[in-house]
Design a protein that fits this description.
This protein is of the alpha+beta class. The protein is built from 14 helices and 9 strands.
Length: 381
């Protein structure tokens, strides 16, 4: 490994602000996206430089790691003496087992182009980090912003209030409609993924439905390598709850049937939103208020943990599921929905009303197209 001070071009007495500024400058200079139109050799060169920059920042951007580096590199010698001797501050034969998690992830994944919903220090968007810490970083031993090594955002619209948080000591997983799971690294015997779900010691802890399955698998494989695990589950209970889960709210665990309904409604709704994007763009209209929908899903999540409101919330989730499916079915096949789905009530939640209106709009569009087709056939038999 090259001397991180030389890679970033900073003084050995540089403060953290100078180091961060240098890192951002180097990152901008070498990021492979800047060379996307260049030949493969140039892209490879930029990628290698970017990895060096990320590895250097992983050492110098953390006070403890920097102190550890300096202590082991002979900082009692002057800079000129080190340069004259041609020695580097870190041995090229460095064992990866001595790397922190932050360093390991930077060396393995930088420049992070393969990740769309996973963010690594020091590139975690501040708003996402703040939301995640407020949502599931305060329970138990609170996590500070500077402790977060990586963050996976599994929320529908990018609020980051649910997902996966990594620190040097632990992994936290907050599933939508479920409690918080906290696992210390030494207690993990296996970590695996199945599609978008993550399992630890055989327990299913989160289903990151809004994240690409390949991205989930890539992060999990990286953690397997860091923990030196073989990826094979050692516990045959993937659906059980576990003793290290801290349930959200004061009403205890959310029953499995409610979690299943929530997951189903969320999947169908996500598929629907993706499907109608082109139509919304073409008509220059927004059929679904995404921000409002995200907030309403969050409200339903809270209701599911309250015995007094859970059944009503579950019923609404069932209606959202049925309407989302009906809209997609009609868009794909033209098969009209069941009559009951078109009959609304003044007491319907805003999101349910929007889905009914969307269904009616699609039917109106289909009828109008049919009229035009018949007209063309009349004039051009």
């Amino acid at each position: 490994m090259k001397d991180p001070y030389e890679v970033l071009g900073v003084r050995r007495s540089a403060g953290i602000a100078e180091i961060e500024l240098a890192y951002r400058g180097r990152r901008s200079q070498y990021h492979p996206d800047r060379y996307a139109d260049s030949d493969a050799q140039t892209v490879r060169w930029a990628t290698d430089r970017m990895q060096e920059v990320n590895a250097a920042y992983a050492w110098l951007g953390d006070e403890q790691q920097r102190a550890r580096y300096d202590a082991g590199s002979g900082t009692d010698r002057s800079d000129d003496a080190q340069q004259a001797s041609g020695t580097s501050n870190v041995s090229d034969r460095q064992d990866t087992s001595t790397l922190s998690l932050a360093q390991f992830l930077h060396q393995r994944f930088a420049p992070f182009d393969a990740f769309a919903r996973t963010y690594f220090a020091a590139d975690i968007p501040p708003k996402k980090l703040s939301n995640a810490l407020l949502s599931y970083g305060r329970q138990g031993r609170a996590v500070r912003a500077e402790d977060v090594v990586a963050l996976m955002d599994s929320t529908i619209f990018g609020g980051a209030k649910d997902g996966v948080m990594l620190t040097e000591q632990q992994i936290r997983l907050k599933n939508l409609g479920d409690g918080l799971a906290v696992w210390e690294w030494p207690n993990i015997r296996s970590i695996t993924s199945q599609k978008t779900a993550i399992y630890i010691n055989g327990y299913k802890l989160i289903d990151c439905l809004a994240v690409n399955a390949l991205e989930v698998a890539r992060l999990v494989e990286g953690l397997q390598a860091f923990l030196k695990l073989d990826g094979k589950p050692r516990s045959p209970a993937p659906e059980r709850s576990h003793p290290e889960r801290q349930e959200a709210g004061s009403s205890g665990a959310v029953p499995q049937k409610y979690r299943d309904m929530y997951g189903m409604a969320r999947r169908e709704f996500l598929d629907l939103c993706e499907k109608i994007q082109k139509l919304e763009h073409h008509l220059e209209a927004e059929f679904i208020d995404r921000v409002g929908a995200a907030e309403y899903f969050g409200y339903l999540e809270q209701c599911l943990s309250d015995a007094r409101r859970a059944e009503r919330a579950c019923s609404v989730l069932g209606e959202i599921t049925a309407l989302s499916k009906a809209v997609m079915t009609f868009a794909d096949t033209g098969i009209p929905p069941a009559i009951r789905l078109t009959r609304g009530s003044s007491e319907d939640p805003k999101l349910v009303k929007e889905l009914r209106e969307l269904l009616e709009t699609l039917q109106d569009i289909a009828r109008e197209l049919e009229r035009h087709v018949k007209a063309r056939q009349f004039f051009h038999p």
